[in-house]
């Protein structure tokens, strides 16, 4: 029933409950129309909807609501005063919210149970310290089930993706963010104090097992790992060789210069005070 057509005889008569007799005979149809709240029931082609028809007669409005209450067991969207109630889609439904949250949680659990796939550029660094590129959803199971991470340190300044935040919340993994720009010509360099702050997070056993990542796991991550190697007393030749392997094919001379020139006195002092050194394999 797409529209309500009033006959010529009805036009000359006062509005009454007889005008909706056909509508209320089919309760399923009227309930559907009420729920849709916006479907037009055209009155003689003038564009008036069913609410306008009913509002013209207060008695009819009351009767209409009483009829619908018998079918729905509740008030209709049209109150006796002729005011349309709030649209169902605009109302906060706590039950619906909880159900959708549960669905999202179940989806994340399914993701975690999928095949174990490490992130790109993944590698073990030392002890319970790991490195990689930016983890994606297909890597979540590996990070949680295999590495059993306690923390993730991200070295980019951009906002962390929501799906990754949901994963961290579900698994209880802590997120540390030390946003830094890469070493690029002519004037952009990683601040030494930020690198020291990042190292302080990584070396703290309370945050391990920990994964370090930037975007590709090459340059900013490579600089941080290079500085860890200095704390392990690696030679610069070995440090640069490792850096270039992970940064290939875009190794940066400025990154290697940064690693060589980084003043590690402050992080060594902090590490020794907390007995974080020497690092154990």
TrEMBL record:
CDD domains, sorted: PFA-DSP_Siw14
Translocase among keywords: no
A Pfam family recorded for this sequence: Y_phosphatase2
UniProt keyword Cell membrane, yes or no: no
Region Disordered, residue ranges: 1-22
InterPro entries found in the cross-reference section: PFA-DSPs, Prot-tyrosine_phosphatase-like, Siw14-like, Tyr_Pase_AS, TYR_PHOSPHATASE_DUAL_dom
Catalytic activity entry: 6-diphospho-1D-myo-inositol pentakisphosphate + H2O = 1D-myo-inositol hexakisphosphate + phosphate + H(+); 3,5-bis(diphospho)-1D-myo-inositol 1,2,4,6-tetrakisphosphate + H2O = 3-diphospho-1D-myo-inositol 1,2,4,5,6-pentakisphosphate + phosphate + 2 H(+); 1,5-bis(diphospho)-1D-myo-inositol 2,3,4,6-tetrakisphosphate + H2O = 1-diphospho-1D-myo-inositol 2,3,4,5,6-pentakisphosphate + phosphate + 2 H(+); 5-diphospho-1D-myo-inositol 1,2,3,4,6-pentakisphosphate + H2O = 1D-myo-inositol hexakisphosphate + phosphate + H(+)
Residue intervals of the Tyrosine-protein phosphatase domain: 121-271
EC number: 3.6.1.52
Keywords recorded for this protein, A-Z: Hydrolase
Compositional bias segments (type: Basic and acidic residues): 13-22
Similarity annotation: Belongs to the protein-tyrosine phosphatase family. Atypical dual-specificity phosphatase Siw14-like subfamily.
Protein name, entry field: diphosphoinositol-polyphosphate diphosphatase
Organism: Saccharomyces uvarum (Yeast)
